[in-house]
Amino acid sequence: RHHIISLANFLPAEYNMVLQTAASFQEVLSRRVKKVPTLQGQVVANLFFEPSTRTRNSFELAAKRLSADTLNFAPATSSLTKGETILDTAKTYLAMGTNIMVIRHREAGVPQAIADEMDRLESRVSVLNAGDGQHEHPSQALLDLFTICSVLDPKQPKIELLQNKKVTIVGDILHSRVARSNIWSLTAAGAEVHLAGPPTLLPKLFADWIPENQEDSPITERKLFLHWDVEPALKDADFVMTLRLQRERMTQHLLPSLREYHQKYGITRTRLKLCKSGVRVLHPGPVNRGVEISSDLMDDPEFSLISQQVTSGVAIRMALLYLIGGGKS
Ligand code: CP
Predict the structure, then answer these.
(1) From CA 212, how far away is CA 206, in angstroms rounded?
(2) What's the pLDDT band for 214 if we cut at 50, 70, 90?
(3) pLDDT tens profile 31-56
(4) ipTM of this model?
(5) What is the 82 CA–ligand 1 centroid distance (Å)?
(6) Contact 88, 114 (CB under 8 A)
(7) Would you say the CB of residue 285 lies under 6 angstroms from ligand 1?
(8) Does residue 131's CB lie within 6 angstroms of at least one atom of ligand 1?
(9) CB atoms < 10 A from the CB of 33, how many?
(10) Is the CB of 266 under 6 A from ligand 1?
């Protein structure tokens, strides 16, 4: 695989290769000297046209741990402000010798458009989607998968561990690229995925939004359920993933009152009692504290995997850069 834009067509063997590679980098990251020479001489450019804390910094750290040279693009201080187009910006980075472009943009399709342009130019540049509009956020879903599988078996994280586990995703599904990528990965792993949220924040034409069995999808059967009420969705869940209300992507009529949202859909200790004992809670961040999840629960290591997700992000992004950068250890 030359570019990673979407998880829709990811094969089970590819998920396991990413998980196993991330596990070996996690071991490297636990050593005193955390740097390996794998991508020495390669250039990784972080082209983030939309704000980010976790994804941008963990891609940068991952690239540095692999000894690549890194370039960081900041739209506000770039020649984008003088009218340079996105494709011309990408071509400028290509001309500087970039090998891997990590792209985030508020419009769906931008990473694919840059990947197509790089292929048209017969460059060998790889493109990694770091979140495009409401479409996909593959590296986030992979780090979520790695976090969950590492809870189930810290030594050998693999997707088979998720067979018949119940994972409930709660919140603003409609605007969430994280939800969409997670639906692909979790259902490919054989998990039962339950989505719950206010009707205004669930996709209307669900079959169009995420086809149950996409024609070229390698997975023949995906277990996916939709709920307007959170309680049935939480019943006997093994993992709960709560999502940020993406207010920046909402038109006024979709915006729920935050207090009402927390009352109806917020993840609290009381609601977690509906889940299986040992349930763990994830959130991709950034969190609206006290809205999607109660503040004390967010900080409780007995339940919350939020910090572990951020830590996993570095190992997963090292794995992705290594695998598409063709690094040799
Ligand atoms: N989860 C995530 O994408 O966070 P950032 O926007 O901080 O990168």
Answers:
(1) 9
(2) low
(3) 999 999 999 999 999 999 999 999 99
(4) 0.98
(5) 27
(6) no
(7) yes
(8) yes
(9) 6
(10) no
